[in-house]
């Protein structure tokens, strides 16, 4: 039996994870769920050098994948790095993948879209090395390696190939960051040679930020690829195209491990209000089931969620509805039972 480590997280994370696990349970997957601690709230209670306790690292290493609730990254200068970054770097989860697609009966401010954002997730400015050179000057290191670029580029082209899509869009700023973005772009071009049926478009990051607003359909059925910080920002912009970041689920993939999570943050101001859209967390959990070989269960959850959203009767405020989180979840569970 495959093992899924579950981190409940901070803020609204625990309540959304509980709902997602409740939905997953309806499908009776052949997966062992192991709940463990990590996050800012845990760290505030226990302290230490990391947001993830040693016993949780042991569980993560013994599991086949991780399902992580939203976590808070401490703003303090000397605080540990985030839970997500720690896990990505520890397990070399080099590809952060965020599908951006319009759902039926939801706001599509600039028209319907369907594409995928792929983000190199272990390096860039998230490498995490900053230092003062004087009292008035601080520097951050932006790490870009050929190895990481090859891995994430190969993932992006392979994803386009599997989907039958025709283009990977490489997003960079090589006219200014000549060495780091230059190395990224050079590597993408080299990897493209192994995928002759997939085209490569090149966009400067500032231009693509404009084009996503001006003509988002230009990128439909394409894979957008970039370095860590650039794609973190661009994918957040893209979430507005589907009406709410509460709709965006994500996966982090390495060669032999994966972590699944909602793209949104922990939203502590909404904690305990039974208000937040559960879609992203539930679908991240469904994606985890697919990764663990539970294809039928995963498809059933996706179908139930999409059905509830399309009906529009039990949707949360960000989708134009008035339902509580729990009411939307109950509607999803009811659809699962009747499928």
Main sheet specs:
10 strands, mixed
**How would you write the strand order of the largest sheet?**
2-1-3-12-11-4-5-10-8-9
Q: In the CATH scheme, what's the topology name of the largest domain?
A: Isopropylmalate Dehydrogenase
CATH architecture level-2 label of the largest domain: 3-Layer(aba) Sandwich
Tell me the overall shape: globular
The Cα radius of gyration reads 20 Å
CATH superfamily of the largest domain: Isopropylmalate Dehydrogenase
What's the CATH first level of the largest domain? Answer: Alpha Beta
Spans of 5+ residues with little confidence (pLDDT < 50)?
A: none
What sequence of helices (H) and strands (E) makes up the elements? EHEHHEHEEEEHEHEHEHEEHHH
Query: Which class of secondary structure composition applies to the elements?
Result: alpha/beta
Question: Total domains, how many?
Answer: 2
Strand content: 15-25%
Query: Count the strands?
Result: 12
């Amino acid at each position: 039996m495959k093992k899924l480590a579950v981190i409940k997280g901070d803020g609204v994370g625990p309540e959304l994870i509980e709902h997602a696990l409740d939905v997953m349970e309806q499908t009776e997957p052949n997966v062992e769920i192991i709940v463990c601690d990590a996050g800012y709230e845990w760290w505030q209670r226990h302290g230490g050098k990391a947001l993830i306790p040693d016993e949780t690292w042991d569980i993560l290493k013994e599991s086949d994948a991780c399902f992580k609730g939203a976590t808070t990254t401490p703003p303090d200068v000397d605080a540990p790095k985030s839970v997500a970054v720690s896990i990505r770097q520890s397990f070399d989860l080099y590809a952060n993948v965020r599908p951006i697609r319009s759902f039926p009966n939801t706001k599509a401010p600039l028209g319907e879209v369907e594409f995928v954002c792929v983000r190199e997730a272990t390096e860039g400015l998230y490498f995490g090395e900053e230092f003062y050179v004087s009292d008035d000057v601080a520097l951050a290191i932006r790490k870009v390696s050929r190895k990481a670029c090859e891995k994430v580029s190969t993932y992006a082209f392979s994803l386009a190939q599997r989907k039958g899509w025709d283009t990977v869009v490489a997003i960079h700023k090589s006219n200014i960051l000549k060495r780091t973005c230059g190395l990224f772009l050079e590597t993408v071009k080299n990897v493209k040679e192994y995928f002759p049926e997939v085209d490569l478009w090149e966009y400067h990051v500032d231009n693509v930020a404009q084009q996503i607003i001006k003509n988002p359909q230009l990128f439909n059925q394409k894979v957008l690829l970039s370095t860590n910080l650039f794609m973190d920002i661009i994918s957040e912009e893209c979430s507005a195209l589907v009406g709410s970041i509460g709709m965006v689920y994500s996966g982090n993939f390495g060669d032999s491990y994966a972590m699944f999570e909602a793209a949104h943050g922990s939203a502590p101001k909404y904690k305990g209000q039974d208000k937040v859209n559960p879609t992203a967390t539930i679908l991240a959990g469904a994606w985890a089931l697919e990764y663990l070989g539970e294809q039928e269960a995963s498809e059933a959850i996706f179908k139930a969620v999409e059905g509830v959203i399309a009906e529009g009767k039990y949707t949360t405020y960000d989708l134009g509805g008035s339902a509580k989180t729990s009411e939307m979840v109950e509607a999803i569970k009811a659809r699962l039972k009747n499928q």
